[in-house]
Amino acid sequence: MIDKLSRKVTIALVAIVLYCTIISTFIYIFDHITYFDYTTLWLTFFIISSPMFLIVGVAMAFLFDRFVVKPQFKGLLYTLVAGIVVLPYSAFISQLTLLNALYYFIFGAIAGIIFFIVQVLFESYFYTKSTKELYD
Predict the structure, then answer these.
(1) 30-70 per-position pLDDT tens digit
(2) 2-30 and 98-125 are packed helices; what angle lies between their axes, rounded to 10 degrees?
(3) Residue 53 and residue 59: Cα distance in Å, rounded?
(4) Residue 41, burial from CB neighbour count under 10 angstroms (0-12, 13-18, 19+)
(5) Contact 121, 15 (CB under 8 A)
(6) Cβ neighbours of residue 11 under 8 Å, at least 6 residues apart?
(7) Rg (CA), the chain
(8) What one-character-per-residue DSSP string does 81-102 give?
(9) How far is 29 from 34, CA to CA, in rounded Å?
(10) What is the model's pTM?
C-alpha cells in the first residue's frame, strides 16, 4: 500500500510541475495584461494546484485503478472529474460566472489529462513488471 501511495504521489508531483509550467507559459505568452513575472505565475499555480493534485488526484488514481478497467474510460473520467472538482475550489478564488466556470473547467480538464498521461508514462516505463520484481 505504501509502495502504491509513493508511486501515486511521485506521479502527482511530476504532474504538478508539468501543469504549472504549461499553464504559466500559456498565460505569460498569450495574456497581454500580465501583472506578474513568470516565476510569480508559476509559484502561484503551484500553490493553488498542489492540494488538488496531491489530494484529489491521488485519491482519483486509487479509485480509478481499482474500479475502472479500460484506459479509455480512465482518461475520460480523469478529464471530467478534474474539471468538475475544480469548480467549487475556484469559487473561492474568483466570482463564479459562466465564463469563469468554463475557464476553470478547462484548466481542471487539462490537469486531469496531464495527470493521466504522466501516470500512463510512469506505469509504462518506470513501474513495469521487471522493476516491480526488484522491489517485491
Answers:
(1) 876 667 788 888 898 899 889 888 988 898 888 888 888 78
(2) 130
(3) 9
(4) buried
(5) no
(6) 61, 115, 118, 119, 122
(7) 16
(8) HHHHHHHHHHHTTS---HHHHH
(9) 9
(10) 0.83
Question: Residue 21 in contact with residue 66, Cβ under 8 Å?
Answer: no
What is the SS3 assignment for 20? helix
Long-range contact set of residues 81-90: C-beta below 8 Å, sequence gap at least 24: 81/112, 82/52, 82/56, 82/57, 82/108, 82/109, 82/111, 82/112, 82/113, 82/115, 83/108, 83/109, 83/112, 84/108, 85/52, 85/56, 86/52, 86/111, 89/52
- Which residue type sits at 113? I
Amino acid at 2: I
